[in-house]
Amino acid sequence: MASFGRFIRLAVGACAFLLVIAASAPCIAQQVNPTASSVKEQQLLQELNRIQGRVSIPDQRSGVLEQPAGRDWREFHNVTLRWIGGIAILGIIAVMVIFYLTRGMVRLESGRSGRTIVRFTAFERFVHWMTATCFIVLAISGLNITFGRPLLLPLIGFEAFSEWSQWAKYAHIYLSFPFTIGVVLIFLMWIAGNIPNKVDVDWLKRGGGIVGHDHPPAYRFNAGQKAIYWIVVLGGGAVAVTGYALMFPFYLSGIEGMQLAQVVHSIVAVLFIAAMLAHIYIGTVGMEGAFEAMGTGEVDLNWAREHHSLWVEEEQAKGQAPSGGTPKAMPAE
Amino acid sequence: MARMKFLCDADRCIECNACVTACKNEHEVPWGINRRRVVTINDGKPGERSVSMACMHCTDAPCAAVCPVNCFYTTADGVVLHSKDLCIGCGYCFYACPFGAPQYPKVGNFGSRGKMDKCTFCAGGPEADGSREEYEKYGANRLAEGKLPLCAEMCSTKSLLAGDGEIIAQIYKERVMKRGYGSGAWGWKTAYHETIES
User: Which fold has domain B4-192?
Assistant: First the structure.
């Protein structure tokens, strides 16, 4: 009997021991796998495509641990942008060459009258050329960032290319300020003549400018010039805003904002360059008598009549332009 | 040839920031620039983890791919370095980098970026190994002396590992086997297109 009692005690003791083990089991399991509730890298990346946390150093921006979106931006910068820029710029050059070879310079149909009318004041021309000069430097230095490495670097070598690119970067930064001022002034001083209206619809239908052979009526700015105006104002505004977001890193946005700003900046910029190449073409070799408007500021009266008939009438009504018919009919002055 | 990599065992990192301090001191990194930092995710919540992060010396490095002046190069050990003589401080490598490694000292007007600075895996730059010019531009060249990066060498919990990718992956695998858990090699998939199966 004594041995049976000992057996019972042992059995009860064993049961109690097992019970204690069983009760503490969940607690032990938690210690064994502390990663059960821990943050998972792949899960965080899938949810937000970035991993962000807290840092104890003063630079709070370094709290972004991973942003694989940089790889999309890389793809854009190295592949997409080069295609867009290449097609836009080479495409417009090809169009201009073909157009020039088939159509040639658009001549003044009625010849020169020998009498001129003021088209742009000295201030307007100053603003135009300030903006234009800045634009050319900004365009070349900007294209250098995207196309310099594959095109120019192999020709001149690392040191020379780096030196040139450094100066191009400084020029790009500093000339952005007069360029922006120029865009603002262009917006303000020519806004009155650049609101689209019914005349523009008719002008486009009849193929005005260098495209058709017609001379549809137009006020001071025809539909084509209005398009250039709005490209400069909106495009210039877009590159200025995005450019300053890049120039002052982290003032406006974090890294994702700067990637987006660079994408907008570069796409708008290459399209802007393509549009300005067309503008330069029409203003120089594309059309007889057009350059004088921004050169001396005075255009031939016949040029004004052919391209801006309604504007000439307005000016004559104001008494600011030579009136009357052809110069031959005019009395001696 | 070794392929140098970093691996931060997030289950061991105690966010002491000694790696950050060691790096700054070893290379005399200027004020405002941190080549390495410790990021704590889900701070104060269950499952919080800290990860020490610097340049991961990526395979097919994005910084090198987007650099407009092509100033990056990869050493025989797989370390991604750059030339501060060629760098123009445009900021593109920072947009492309998945780990926020490139830093720019603020020089000149308008917050204009100076020459980029980043972790060199304690391997200096293009100048002669151990030269004064190299030290002034890039910091110490421990690799040339046969030493590994200081941040990992002095990590008190041995959370941060630096060295040949295969060896540190093996060390990590053994740890995971022994203790029975591991939250993975942070950044490896992004940097090296591979991860450590455990």
Answer: Alpha-Beta Plaits (3.30.70)
